[in-house]
Design goal:
Chain lengths: 318, 439
Amino acid sequence: MSELAERAAALRKTETTGALGWRRPSYWPFIIPALVIVIGVIVFPWAFTIWMSLNEWKVGAPTTFVGLANYLRLPGDPRFVEAVWHTLLYTLLSVALPLIFGTFAACVFHARFPLRGFLRGLFIMPMMATPVAIALVWTMMFHPQLGVLNYLLSLIGVPPQLWIFHPATVIPSLVLVETWQWTPLVMLIVLGGLAAIPSEPYESAQIDGANGWQVFRFITFPLILPFLFIAAMVRTIDAVKSFDIIFAMTQGGPGTASETINLYLYSVAFAYYDIGYGSAIAVIFFVLIIVLAALLLYVRQRTQWTQLTREAPAEAVA
Amino acid sequence: MFDAKFSRRSMLAGTALAATGLPWPARAEPQWKKYAGTTIEANLIKGPRGELLQRHAAEFTELTGIKVNSEVIPEQQQRQKLVIELTSGRPSFDVAHISYHVQKRQFDKAGWLADLSGFMKDPNLTAPDLVESDFSAAGLQYAKNDKGEMRSLPWSVDYFILYYNKEIFQKKGVALPQTMEELAQAADTLTDAKAGTFGFVGRGLRNANMALWPCFYFNYGGEFLDAKGNLLTDGPEAIEAAKFYQRLLTKDAPPGVAGFNWMESMAAFTQGRAAMWIDGVGWAPPLEDPNASRVVGKVGYAVLPKGPKGAYSPTYGDGIGVAQASKNKEAAYLYCQWAVSKTMGARLLQIGGGVQFRNSILNDESVRSGVKMPREWLDSVIGSAKISKLGLPVVAPVAEFRDILGSALTATLSGADPATEMKKATDQYRPILERSEKA
C-alpha cells in the first residue's frame, strides 16, 4: 500500500472511530420510525393531494394532467367565492362572540360565590356534547312554527323569526349554536389565565381608587391577553374548519347561504366525485388556515414586542 | 295477509300462482342449494328495505345454505362507500344496493355491476316467475344499460303522491284538486296564516327540492333533455313550473320553507299545520302512527293532479345488483333474486316500507289485502305506477344537477325571478354535463 493510501485509510479510521478509538455515534437509525410515520401520514397525503389537484380526476373516468387548471377555475366559480365569504364571516363571528362571552364568564366564575364549582361544571356541559346531537336539537328549536325559540320570543312580544330557514339569518343562527357550544372552552382557557395573575397589581389599583372597568381594562385584560390569543387561535382553526353542525343543520342552505369552503369541498369531492377540483379547494383551504393562524401568531408576537419596547426604557430608568 | 315463510315450497307456490295469471311457461325450480357453504357480503342502505332483508336473512340462508353478512349504512354514506370501494376495483361486498335516480348513469358508465341477463335466462339460477316482463317500464329503464343488459334487479320504487288533510279540506268546504291550477287555488283557500295553517308544504331546501319541482315540470310538459341530450331546463315549461313552485311555496307554505326538507315538511303536516303535502309514497306509516302524528285517520292520499300538458308522477327507485369484481356472482345473484321475490316484496308493501317494481306483486289481491296502510294509499300507489316517469335525468352528474337547479329554485323563494334563475342555473350546469358526457 502506498503511503498516501495508508494516510487516507488512517484518516477514515479517525473519522469513524474518533480520536479516542470510540465509534462516532450515529443517531439516524433512531429517527427512521418517526420519519417514516411523518412521511406516511403527513407528507405523503399532502403531496398526493397536491398531485391530485393538478389532475382532472373524476371517479370512474380516466385521469389527465391539467396543471393549474383546477386552481384557475376557482376564482370564476361563484359558489367557491361565495363559500370563502361565508367562511370568513362565520369564522369572525364564531371567534369573536365566544371570546367576549367566554372572557366575561371567566371573570364571573373567577370570583368566589356559593356553588361555584357546580355552576362551572354546568357551564362547560355544552362543550362535552356531540355536535351532531346538538345540531338536531337546535334544528327543532329553530323550527319557525314548532320550535321553542319562537314560542319564547312570542312571550315577550317579539315576532317569530326564521332562524336557519332564511338566507339572511342562517349564519348568525349557526353562530349562535357555535357560541353556545364553545364559549365554555374560552372560559376555561381564560380562567387559567386569571388564576395565574398575581394579586399585587389589584391591591395597588384598589389603593389608587381604580373602578371595576379600569381594573379590567388596565390590569386583567393585558395580563390575560396571551391566553386570549391562544383561545383565538384555537377557535379560529376550529371555526374555519367547522363542518358537522352546519352540515347537520342546513347542509349549506337555504340555497347556498351557509355553504362554507369545507361544505363545498365535501360536495365537490364526495357528492360530485370531482377529486381533482376538490383537492385544489383543499389546498387553498389549507393555505387559508395557515394564513389565519400565522396572522394571529404575528399579531401576538408584535404585541409582545411592542410591550417589551415600552417596558424597556422604564426598566432602564429604574 | 301474505306472510308466508320463505322456503322452496313457498317459492314454488309463488311461482305457480304467478304462472296462472301470466303467459310465461312454467320452469323447473332453480338449484337453490348449489352454492351452499358460500359466504357473501351485502352493502345495503339503512331504511325499511335494507332492514327487511337483514331481518329475514336467516330464511335466505335456510333456503340456499349461503351465509350473508350484510352492512346497513345511512343513504348518503352508503352511496359514497359504494363508489369509493368500487373505484378501488376490490370492493368488500358482493351485493350492492344502489339508488338508481342518483347512481344509474355513473354505474353504467363505469361498468361496476355484473350483467345479470345470462343469469336470468338460466333455469338453474332463476325462479320461473322472475322475468323481465314482470318489472314496470320504469324499473327496466333503470336496470338496463345502453346495450340492453340487466345490470341490476329493480327493487323498490318511490312515486310522488299528494297527501292531504281531510279535516282541513272539510272545514273549508274545499274539494280534492284534480288539476295543478285547482291545487294552487285550494292552497290559497286553505291558508290561514294567522291560525298557523297553510295550504301547502313541500321541499324548499336546495337539492331536496329537485324531487318536488318535477311534479310540476312534467305536468307542464317539461323534459330534462331532448333527443340529442341537450339540456331543456331553461325552456318555457321549466320557467312556468318554477313560477308555479314559487307561487305555491311563497304564498301558501309556512314561513321558512326554503330550508325545509322532507323531515320539516312532514313535521308541519303531521302537526296539522299544512293541508297538502307532495312527497314520496313511503311516508304513510309515520303519518298513520298515533305516536308520531296528530293527523291519524284524517290523511287522504291521491295521485298528483294533472297539469296543462298531462299527468305524471316523478319516480325514483332502488335496485340491487352484483359487483362485477365479486367472486361469488351466482350466490350474490340468488340473494338479489330473493330480495326482489314476491314474498319479500309483499312484506315490504304490507308494512308500507316501499313498493316493488314487480307488477305481479302490486296486482295480487292476496298481497293487497294484507296492506296495513289505508286503501286510498294503495290506490294512489297503483294510480301513480300508471303515470310514472323518471324523476331525474339519467346523467352521471346528478348531484350537481340537483344542487345547481335546486339552488335556483330556492332563490326564487326569496323573490328572485324564476326565468333568470333557471337560465343562470342551466348555463352553469350545461358545461358540467358536457364535460361528463365527453369523459
